[in-house]
Design brief:
328 residues; alpha/beta; D-Maltodextrin-Binding Protein, domain 2; 2 domains; 10-stranded mixed beta sheet; 11 helices; globular; binds aspartic acid; Bug_dom1; signal; BUG; Tripartite tricarboxylate transporter substrate-binding protein
Length: 328
């Protein structure tokens, strides 16, 4: 008989209770210091703007500041990897768009698994995109753009936020449907890419409506189409790419909030409650409405809905991306 067994069992149960207690205490006091919300792109872009918009009310609900940290690189995969490897204590959370799903098909091998290395807190908002050109680019409409690109393809430069970014995905689908390849110029986010488009340093860019509507209305950029199957209420005179011949063009950028795998459930619940409250905030809603951004229904603002959506989107985009033929 092993006489140490009861002692081992006692120790294990005391340690177990200890772990449980410390977990419970952590969750109960959470958060007792600022929470970092990681953004996978540069400051001043669409993902960054949504993050900063929800960070303030989320911080109010949590009773601690939610600090936005930009960790750009490799189309968002640098930040995804950073969060996947972070301590699962609720002090580092993550907002990413549908690049969380598309990166899988755009990279041969990712250093993290989007379906295994995260906890899922909730979906946030859906954002349409627009195809833009610099103000002095010769074509004035989509038909002219198509002809211009076909005769000047080596010359035409298309900005994006790197392989894995939706601007890259949108550009990839655009080029594939047009049957041409242009020169791609990657940035750390579409914030800096839009700055260069406004400055005339690059020719075209697919970007979310988050920042772009005022520039379109002021004629500081040219707009050639919207990426959704329906026209946008904020830009009723801008045709969809689908209606201009790029049949089936349908890109709307969804977003989710994540935490590293193993973050305790009570902590996730607190973050989820803060997220829901932020999305119900009238100022947040008004700001997003003005950019034609739809906050997702409450039924999608939870972990299981985000996880199911991510899974479906990985399956949806894999074949489309492989068919559209590979990243720049
Ligand atoms: N709009 C971006 C993208 O193309 C990223 C960003 O938010 O800057 O994925």
């Amino acid at each position: 008989m092993n006489l140490n067994k009861p002692l081992n069992a006692l120790l294990a149960s005391v340690l177990g209770v200890g772990v449980l207690l410390s977990g419970a205490v952590n969750a109960q006091n959470y958060p007792d210091k600022p929470v970092t919300l990681v953004v996978p792109f540069a400051a001043g872009g669409p993902t960054d703007s949504i993050a900063r918009l929800i960070a303030v009310p989320m911080g109010k609900s949590l009773g601690q500041t939610v600090v936005v940290e930009n960790a750009p690189g490799a189309g968002g995969t640098v930040a995804s990897n950073k969060v996947a490897k972070a301590k699962p204590d609720g002090y580092m959370i993550y907002i990413h768009h549908m690049g969380m799903a598309t990166a899988q098909a755009l990279y041969d091998k990712l250093p993290y698994d989007p379906m295994k290395d995260f906890e899922y807190i909730g979906q946030v908002a859906d954002v349409p995109m627009v195809l833009l050109g610099r103000k002095n680019l010769p074509p004035n409409n989509f038909k002219e753009l198509e002809a211009y690109i076909k005769t000047n393809k080596e010359k035409v430069t298309m900005a994006n936020a790197g392989p894995g970014a939706v601007s890259q995905l949108c550009g990839l689908i655009f080029q594939s449907k047009l049957g041409v390849r242009v020169t791609t110029v990657p940035y750390k986010g579409t914030g800096p890419a839009l700055t260069d488009l406004l400055g005339g340093q690059v020719d075209i860019l697919c970007d979310q409506t988050t920042q772009t509507i005022p520039y379109i209305k002021d004629n500081r950029v040219k707009v050639y189409g919207v990426t959704t199957p329906k026209r946008l209420s904020a830009l009723p005179n801008v045709p969809t790419l689908d209606e201009q011949g790029l049949k089936g063009f349908d890109v709307k950028v969804w977003h989710g909030v994540y935490a590293p795998k193993g973050t305790p459930k009570p902590v996730l619940d607190k973050i989820n409650a803060a997220l829901k409250k932020a999305l119900a905030d009238p100022d947040v809603k008004a700001r997003l409405d003005s950019s034609n951004i739809d906050i997702v229904p409450v039924a999608k603002q939870n972990g299981p809905a985000l996880q199911a959506h991510l899974d479906a989107e990985i399956n949806r985009w894999g074949p489309i991306i492989r068919k559209a033929n590979i990243p720049d």
